[in-house]
Structure formats: structure tokens, C-alpha cells
Amino acid sequence: IDDLPLGEVLEAHELFCKSEGREGKIANVSEVDFRPLRRLKNRRLSGLSAPNAVFFGMDLEGVQLQGANLSGADLRGAKLRGADLRGARLVGAQLCRADLSDAKLGPLKIDEDRVIRSDLTRAVLRGANLRGASLPRARLIEADLSGAKLDGADLGGAEMPAGFRP
Questions:
Q1: Predicted TM-score of the model (pTM)
Q2: How many secondary structure helices (H) and strands (E) does the chain include?
Q3: In whole angstroms, what is the distance from residue 28 CA to residue 124 CA?
Q4: Fewer CB in 10 Å around end: N or C, the chain?
């Protein structure tokens, strides 16, 4: 990205986060394939701009992505246990079979776009904090929502697991 290896771009972004903007640089990594890095476990990447990026099957456990732009991102099968996605933009993101156990997701706007639907089919949301999350029209078919905190979540028009009662 800008003639730098992806790892160095992310290190500069983490420095920006840790120094509260005094050092480093915000990463704009639109449409980048992160899979060569294999994992971003416990990385501090708040505010990352990564629309349409590919994180397919990656280990993102404990990653901090507060306020990140992940619109249209491919997070299928990603391990996001304990990740902090509060305020992240996930419109049109693909989260099929992603493990979001104990993740922090609310308040969060997943589907403010009425045409694009976010897909959380078979996602594991066990114990996830979805308080105040905006999930209208999201696909949650066969998702594991056991123990998920859904107080004040907007689930209008969402496709829910059979027999699920919020």
C-alpha cells in the first residue's frame, strides 16, 4: 500500500492508535486481501478503513476495530472471538460462519442500506454484546445467538434462526 508492505502499513496504523494520533498514520486499505498475514489477533486497528477487504478464515480474535469501515468486507469463517467492533460499519459485510463469540458489536449499524443485506448465516454470536445494534434485514439464519445480549437491538426484517425469540 503506497509502496509499503501491508504489515508496515498496519504497524503505522497501530502506532497512530496507541499515540492518539500524534504518530503513525491511519491506514486506508480498501479492497486489500489480508490473508497473507494469516492473523491479526489482538491487534489495535480502531478506525481502520478497509471496505471490501478480504479477511476470509483469518484469526482476528480480540482485535480492536472500533469505528472501522468494513463495508462489504469478506469475513466469512473469520475467528472474531472477543473482538471489539463497536461502531464499526459492516454494511454488506459477509460474516457467514464467522465466530463472534463474546464480541462487542453494539451500538452498530450493520444494514442501514435497504438494498444490501449483511449475511451472518451460521455465525457464532454466543454471548456477543449486541445491545443497541442495528441489524435490520440482516441474515441470521442458523446463527448461534445463545447468551447474546440483544437489549435495544433493531432486528426489524432480519431473517432469524427458526424458533428464535429475542
A1: 0.81
A2: 1, 0
A3: 28
A4: C
